[in-house]
Amino acid sequence: MAGEGGNIIRNVFGKSYKEAEHIMKDASRGSLDFKSPQENTFYGKKGGKKLDDYQAKKDNTLLVTKVEGPLDDSGGKIRKPREGEKHWFRATFNRPAAKNEYKKISWQVKINGARVPFFFDYSSLEGSTQTLQVKLPCYDMRAYAYFKTPIDKASVEVKINNPLPVYIDRFKVKGKDRQGVNLADDLCYGLGVSNQYPSRYTLQYVESKGIWIKSEISNKTDEELWTGFKRMVTDLFSVGELEAVALDMIEKFRRSEGGEYTNPVLTKHVQEHPSSQRFCISIEDEIADRIKKNNGNTASIEDDEIHFTDNEIGKFGNRGWGHPQFSTLKDTFLGGLTICMNDTWAYEVKLTGFSKSGNGAYDATYKVTLYDHFGLDMPDIEKKYYYLLGFRYWFILQHIRGYKPFITKVEFEKTFKENISAGKAERQSRRRAVKEREDHLRNMGRRRPGEY
Fold this sequence. Notes:
By secondary structure, the chain is an alpha+beta fold. The protein has helices at 99-102, 203-207, 211-219, 222-236, 240-255, 264-272, 274-293, 329-333, 337-340, 378-382, 389-399, 424-443; strands at residues 2-4, 7-9, 64-71, 86-97, 106-111, 114-118, 129-137, 141-146, 155-158, 166-171, 260-261, 306-307, 346-356, 361-374, 406-419.
């Protein structure tokens, strides 16, 4: 026998005889020729001749024809999978497969060009099947099921639903009272408007707070009240560029339009304030701690519950970072933050960006939104503010003359770098080591760059 160009050539001298229970000759692509210089004889029933249309031999090789996923427990498509979550992936075969066949299937995912195999035990399965399901973790990837070689035709692409932004912390509700239900009293305006004390803001009650305010309610025009209010703010409580901000806020109040107020100059001063910086360091510690404990899975670090006290326990434990405050003597008399912002009534912190590299290092971006109310309530006027003419004028303008207060909003984003191996404790230890080194150098008479 010799092979030549895919052909089989057999030369036999003499006779050739074949005998078997069944002999089949199949020319799957070309013709089947019987040639003889004499007669071709066929023996069989009914003359030994039976002619029919040609039927090609079926290829019975087991193949994966389709891969689907991620799927829920009911087989429905999950449209927005989250990173790291495990979901069902289903492979469909071209025919029913016995256990000894489908147990040879391989699973693989491709992430950023890298192929990662997954192995499964099918010993608990019985019988034949035309589909097979396994659970795979979801990433931005392509999932393959195959018997010999993975191909894109038998795969499915998975796109992760970016869970960002996610809440890191929420403190009280802007514009609402301490319970987050009714309108805050310092945002009420006009006669008799108070949710907490329904009868306290009547004209008679306000006049009962003292002879000064009673006289001013009766005798001062709106213009005189605005002039006195502005004079107090510029003479006592604001200087420099924050004075312009304070006057701008007064003008918004005078327009009685309510709503929210933002100002880039105010935002800059709030963001640079030591109280805000301490707050942000604590927030970064908290974000890093959650990322470490969840192996970099940002979908699992959210706490979207609204908390109403600084010491309230949150989803991830103690919330000991407090909130930014701007009420130092410098803020009050040498700047302007106290009159513009004073305290933080409510805030939200959201993780808005997260980028992780292969070695665990990451950049995290978070947004801080602070809210305060540019308005007064009865406790303000019952305290020492009563003795300041400008505060009495402010109270009269809001609660007697009906000018509408508003919500002050300060919003900024910050980015920090860290590694998923470092949480709160590691970051605090690192800061202590830096401080100890700086203190040691200072004690030796050396100063940090910029120190004199």
